[in-house]
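Provenance and format

Records in this collection were gathered into a single text stream. Each protein contributes a sequence line and a token line. The two records reproduced below are adjacent in the stream.
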Amino acid sequence: MPTLVPMGVLLPDSILRNEFIAVLAAFVAINTIVYVTLAVAKILPKVYVRDWLSARNRRSETRSIDPDAPI
């Protein structure tokens, strides 16, 4: 008769309690958070800081070759 093995157990407990595995798991967790943050940042619209600054630094006249160009 076959012996029953609990589902989901891939490695023995002695290997999973190793310090190297704990460091590797922490690295994978941080890496996952970074990639999720980058993916969400690509989905969101871009934010331009210039839109938040006042318009005092803008020129009152255009410096374009075309004198009727918008300011």
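Adjacent record:
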Amino acid sequence: MFDVLGISPQLLFGQILLGLINGSFYAMLSLGLAVIFGLMSVVNFAHGAQYMLGAFVAWLLLTWLGIPYWGALIVAPILVAGFGMAVERAFLRRLQSLDHLYGLLATYAVALIVEGLVRHRYGASGIPYANPMPGGVNLGFMFLPYYRVWVVGFSLVLCLGTWLLIERTKLGAYLRAANEKPDIVEAFGINVPRMITLTYGFGVGLAALSGVLAAPIYQVSPSMGSNLIIVVFAVVVIGGMGSISGAIVTGYLLGLVEGLTKVFYPAAAHLSIFVIMILALLIRPSGLFTKSP
């Protein structure tokens, strides 16, 4: 069948794997955005910079302290999440009662500052990060790297776990209620401002964790987040702002669509996501996975 189409199995399955890899990062990053927007109504334009910080902190931990990838997978998201919570307490909390545009502009300013400081200190060129799981398995029609399998599997487990936490636990119910009825939640003795801060930190931590996972695949650079964030926002818009399941499913699907488009029409691969976004907005402006009012 592949010979009839004029496509080699290596190319097809290689692009499917690449689509799953990209889809894993799209899903994790859009999941963090959906958590923050759905529970705080904040459009976090600093998400790309926080993703980049996760990768840079992992590299710094390895370079300065000798902490390997597996340690950075835990430490880096915690450190970046702490930075995010400080930003929320210092700036975003004061803007929460205002229009969404103010939060977007504030987080965009944070992204520009963070990216500019990192570029000034380390330059604009990419920095390699050693692969913690070298090697792979030869399937005959393609070579399957172990680390790529780890990234896809880990992201699937993380996305499913986050969905279960938000949608199927009492804690998730409190988080959703804190955005809609904070007075009622406070009547149960819950500190809503602290919950909001922790929620933002959790979303930022997801972005930083994605950055750590991306570091061995893509070179660590100040622009790695800004190159990705527009696509991630398109994923969130298609799935529905604040939709946890929409962010996950749409992220993986669009990663596969992008990968397959590179096989059949490479010139349109990157544009395919935005074409789908326009069609989704025309068909269902609120998002494909949001509930009808």
